[in-house]
C-alpha cells in the first residue's frame, strides 16, 4: 500500500513537471524562423530557390525565395549554413527572416561604427539574437584593448561558433545588403 501511494505521487509529480516544461517547447529546442515554419508545413507543395550571395570563412550565405504556388505566397530570407569540422561533422544553419534583416544590419553597422572604436574598463559583450537562434556580436578584452567579433549559427550548438575579423564583418554587411529582399 505504501509503495502504491509513493508510486502514485511520483507519477503525478512527474506528469505535472512534464506538462509545465513542454508549454514553451523542450529545453534546447531550436525556435524556427517564419520562413522555416512556412516551408516545413506538411500538406503543402513549396518551391525554394537558393541564391548564393557569398562565403565568409566556411559559412555559405544565400538569399532564399520561398514560393507557395497554390496560395500565391512568396517569402524571402537570408540563410547562413556551414558544415562543422572534426570527426563528427554536422550541418548547421540559421535563417534570418526578411523582417529581421533591417535590425541585423543596424546591429552590424553599430558594432562596426560605434562599438569597435571604443574601449571598456571591463570585459564586455554585445550581442544581436534572431528569433531562430542566430547570434552575432562582439566582446571586449581589456587586457588586449580590442573588440573581437563573433558569429554563431545556432545558440544551442557551440560547434557553429566562429570568430569574425573586421574584414569578415565588413563582408557580412556587404553580402546582406546585396541580397534582393
Number of helices: 4
Beta-strand share of residues = 25-35%
Q: Main β-sheet, in a few words? A: 4 strands, antiparallel
Shape: globular
Mean pLDDT: 84
From the alpha carbons, calculate the radius of gyration and give it in angstroms: 21 Å
Spans of at least 5 consecutive residues whose pLDDT stays below 50 are 3-25
Helix content: 25-40%
Distance between the termini: 67 Å
Task: Tell me what the structure shows.
With 181 residues, the protein is of the alpha+beta class. It contains four helices and eight strands. It has helices at residues 2-21, 34-39, 98-115, 166-177, and strands at 47-56, 59-68, 73-83, 91-97, 124-129, 135-141, 146-152, 161-164. It has a four-stranded antiparallel β-sheet. Helix 3 packs antiparallel against helix 4 (166-177). The longest helix is centred in the first third of the chain and has 20 residues, at 2-21. The radius of gyration is 21 Å and the shape is globular. It starts with a helix and ends with a helix.
Topology record:
Elements: H1 2-21, H2 34-39, E1 47-56, E2 59-68, E3 73-83, E4 91-97, H3 98-115, E5 124-129, E6 135-141, E7 146-152, E8 161-164, H4 166-177
Antiparallel strand pairs: 1-2, 2-3, 3-4, 5-6, 6-7, 7-8
In short:
The chain is 31% helix and 34% strand. The protein is of the alpha+beta class.
Keywords:
single chain, about 180 residues, alpha+beta, four-stranded antiparallel β-sheet, 8 strands
